[in-house]
Design a protein that fits this description.
The protein is mostly helical. Helix content is 70%, strand content 2%. It has a two-stranded antiparallel ribbon with strand order 1-2. The chain is globular and about 70 Å long.
Length: 532
């Protein structure tokens, strides 16, 4: 019975949100309480299943999984003929991260955002289903299918609540993602024509024997595949769609979207690691990923310094995190993989909390302040106010909502910039120390270190300026009415970041073993192809 439960666990992160979304559609929009209860049960189950999968892939629980890799054969056909669901250390980590982030962004949405449009709850479940499927699938075509599932649901949530700006930037978001999906489909067709398979484990095995014109065509297909993933990872110059779309999305939607760019990074890491023994194509190695990551990091840093709108600042933080990950994973070997994965965990949780927090902070601003920020961005109007009345702001008491908002903003700034004592500092310190001391301080390591440090200094300036603008520059503010379902998600996500710092040792050990496992792709390939 226990082994049967373990054998069927890998499909549950896909089945649970899919069934929940279907059940939610049976209720009308006025029956929000029933949808909330279903959603709560779904996310609690997903976290529980993710924790079990973490233990199984880590070997903490006895199972008959080959190489501690769980393989679920749909239709009970053997690989590579069946569609396979594969859960390993990397997939289990991403499942847990997605479940935690989705739970608290959804909880924030239940405060009032689910009443701004139709089908908020089922669309949220479908995004989670698509994300989980992308992390679990061992089939290249079904990676495309799950991409389309969460993208189609994200189109609805991107436009949730309407509004001219949201619709305009939402169209850009939809158009660019449709283009990337088209490129992905072309690449998959080419790879299938060359290898005769869509199973990622078998593709990795067949790629090693391709020679001559077939090998060149495979390299071309891999390059197209890499470009599609780079678009989804928000790499420069393919990320022009992200800033406007994310900054105009509703707070819980933007918070959940903070993990969506990491699906592209995950795909590059997954396929690149499997193809490594056969000579990974340039699209999945340092020849492309490292320089693209550095340029993306520089672009995000410049944008962060240039913007005066809080939501755009948060959007540029996503670009910076994607650039950092691409540059780190583009370094040779797997030395930086574990620190990069730690940075991924910290940055996703921190930026997700930051998007939620900014919506509450914006309630402090008087009418027209957002328009002023847009004007400052467009016309460089700064430092034009008079100094009268500044003395009147001295000595104003800090009510409890203001204390919470200010301290939470400070914590988000520390996390995103990478200052001690939270997980952002641990992530960047481990990343840079690994780059400098483990790779022999190559020129690439020094470039990565210099750009990351400069990005951190720029972040200090940008967040300091934004904090002054949001909390001190406004003469008259109204104390915001904060609901428990709004405060709790931000506190929870920041608490998880603090926990990453407190238990950095065990988390780093798990990630080091994950990096070591990714450096041995035969463990994944053998587990999939030997499954009967």
């Amino acid at each position: 019975m226990k082994q049967m439960l373990f054998a069927n666990l890998p499909i549950l992160p896909i089945a649970i949100p899919l069934l929940t979304a279907g059940l939610m559609l049976l209720f009308n929009e006025q029956q929000r309480r029933a949808k909330t209860i279903l959603g709560l049960m779904s996310f609690a189950s997903l976290i529980w299943v993710s924790l079990l999968l973490i233990q199984l892939t880590d070997g903490a629980m006895n199972s008959d999984w080959v190489n501690k890799v769980g393989v679920y054969l749909l239709g009970n056909w053997p690989a590579p003929f069946s569609i396979v669901i594969v859960v390993d250390r990397l997939a289990a980590m991403m499942l847990l991260l997605t479940s935690i982030l989705a739970t608290f962004t959804w909880l924030y949405g239940t405060s009032r955002w689910d009443r701004r449009g139709v089908h908020f709850h089922p669309l949220f479940q479908l995004i989670v289903m698509g994300l989980n499927g992308s992390f679990l699938t061992g089939d290249l075509f079904n990676l495309f299918v799950f991409f389309e599932v969460f993208l189609a649901a994200s189109y609805g949530l991107m436009l949730h609540g309407s509004g001219k700006e949201r619709v305009a930037y939402g169209m850009h978001y939809i158009a660019v993602n449709l283009l990337s999906s088209f490129l992905l489909l072309i690449a998959i067709a080419l790879i299938y024509g060359l290898t005769g398979s869509l199973n990622m484990a078998e593709i990795a095995a067949h790629a090693a024997i391709l020679k001559g014109a077939d090998r060149s065509l495979f390299e071309l297909a891999a390059a197209v595949l890499g470009v599609a993933f780079l678009i989804k990872a928000a790499a420069w110059p393919l990320n022009f769609w992200l800033i406007g779309a994310y900054s105009n999305a509703s707070a819980p939607v933007a918070g959940l979207f903070s993990i969506m760019t990491k699906v592209g990074v995950y795909a590059l890491l997954r396929i690149g690691s499997l193809l490594e023994p056969s000579g990974a194509p340039a699209a999945f190695g340092g020849e492309w990923m490292f320089p693209v990551g550095i340029v993306t990091l520089v672009f995000g840093t410049i944008g962060m310094l240039a913007t005066h709108q809080p939501e755009r600042l948060a959007s540029y933080c996503i670009v910076i995190s994607s650039g950092t990950l691409l540059a780190a994973l583009g370094m040779p070997g797997v030395i930086l993989t574990a620190p990069a994965l730690y940075y991924l965990l910290s940055s996703v949780l921190a930026v997700g909390a930051f998007f939620l927090l900014l919506e509450m902070i914006n309630r402090l601003q008087p009418f027209g302040s957002e328009l002023l920020a847009v004007s400052e961005d467009a016309f460089d109007l700064r430092d034009l106010g008079d100094e009268e009345g500044l003395e009147d702001t001295v000595g104003i008491p800090f009510p409890i909502p203001m204390v919470f908002l200010g301290m939470a903003f400070f914590a988000c700034a520390l996390l995103i910039i990478g200052l001690p004592p939270l997980s952002g500092f641990v992530a960047k310190f481990s990343l840079l120390s690994a780059a400098l001391f483990s790779s022999g301080a190559t020129s690439s390591a020094w470039v990565l270190t210099g750009v990351v440090l400069l990005s951190g200094f720029a972040g200090i300036m940008a967040f300091s300026r934004m904090g002054i603008h949001l909390f001190w520059a406004v003469q008259e503010t109204e104390l915001p009415a904060l609901r428990f379902t709004e405060v709790l998600p931000v506190l929870a996500l920041l608490t998880f970041c603090a926990a990453l710092a407190i238990w950095a040792g065990p988390v780093s050990n798990y990630l080091e073993q994950t990096a070591h496992y990714l450096g041995q792709p035969n463990l994944y390939i053998d587990a999939v192809l030997s499954q009967d």
